[in-house]
Design brief:
Elements: H1 22-36, E1 44-51, E2 58-65, E3 71-77, H2 84-99
Antiparallel strand pairs: 1-2, 2-3
Protein name: RNase H type-1 domain-containing protein
């Protein structure tokens, strides 16, 4: 039986993000991912979505890095009256459909 891993929401040893540059945060995050979830063994899926002025035209996207070295990226349009929340949620829905 296959079990799913625990969802980790914190990056090891990152400390207070307010005291770090964006590059330092990215470096800590990449080291954390490489240590806990090696790219040759894990699929990494990144999602995001947003809307203009937080309540208008929305879009979202999915990016996946695959263990075989390939990757895929898919942008998606959301409806005209879309919130940031709906756009982010749509990106999660789309990523699940692509993985299944």
């Amino acid at each position: 039986m296959h079990t799913l891993p625990n969802i980790v929401k914190e990056v090891d040893n990152i400390g207070r993000k307010a005291q770090l540059s964006e590059q330092e945060i990215m470096d800590f995050t990449n080291k954390h991912l490489d240590k806990k979830y090696p790219i040759k063994e894990w699929m990494r899926i990144y999602t995001d979505g947003s809307a203009t002025d937080a309540v208008r035209i929305g879009s979202c996207g999915v990016h996946a890095s695959l263990p075989d070295g390939n990757s895929l990226a898919r942008p998606f349009a959301c409806e005209m009256r879309c919130t940031n929340y709906k756009a982010k949620n749509r990106s999660h829905q789309r990523s699940r459909k692509r993985v299944q």
